[in-house]
């Protein structure tokens, strides 16, 4: 049984914090290097964004430009952009999940 009044070893705690900080930084670099693609429902628009949240391209099918008016096309672009942001959030959460789980167990 562990003594509830025992003073934790500060060197051990600092080493754990250092290790977790390094792991978070490593994962952050991995997330920032990711590239995510997402599409509108009918694939009229494809967006590509990096892990840092910056969009690198938005591709619009030329048929969509002929088929839709500006208002509808802007809604389709927003749909693809929001899908990309959601996909990025899911991928980021998946990368950080092990660290979050480990922190909860400390």
UniProtKB/TrEMBL annotation:
Keyword DNA-binding in record: yes
Molecular-function GO term, any one: DNA binding
Keywords: Coiled coil, DNA-binding
Coiled-coil residues: 10-37
Gene3D superfamilies found in the cross-reference section: Nucleoid-associated protein YbaB-like domain (3.30.1310.10)
InterPro entries for this protein: YbaB-like_sf, YbaB/EbfC
Record PANTHER family: NUCLEOID-ASSOCIATED PROTEIN YBAB
Protein's recorded name: YbaB/EbfC family nucleoid-associated protein
Organism of this sequence: Amycolatopsis iheyensis
Lineage of the species this protein comes from: Bacteria, Bacillati, Actinomycetota, Actinomycetes, Pseudonocardiales
């Amino acid at each position: 049984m562990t003594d509830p009044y025992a003073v934790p070893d500060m060197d051990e705690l600092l080493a754990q914090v250092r290790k977790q900080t390094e792991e978070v930084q490593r994962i952050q670099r991995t997330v920032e290097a990711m590239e995510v693609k997402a599409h509108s429902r009918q694939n009229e628009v494809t967006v590509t964004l990096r892990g840092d949240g910056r969009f690198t391209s938005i591709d619009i099918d030329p048929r969509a430009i002929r088929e839709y008016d500006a208002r509808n096309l802007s809604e389709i672009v927003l749909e693809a952009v929001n899908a990309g942001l959601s996909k990025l959030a899911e991928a980021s959460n998946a990368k950080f999940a092990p660290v979050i789980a480990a922190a909860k167990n400390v």
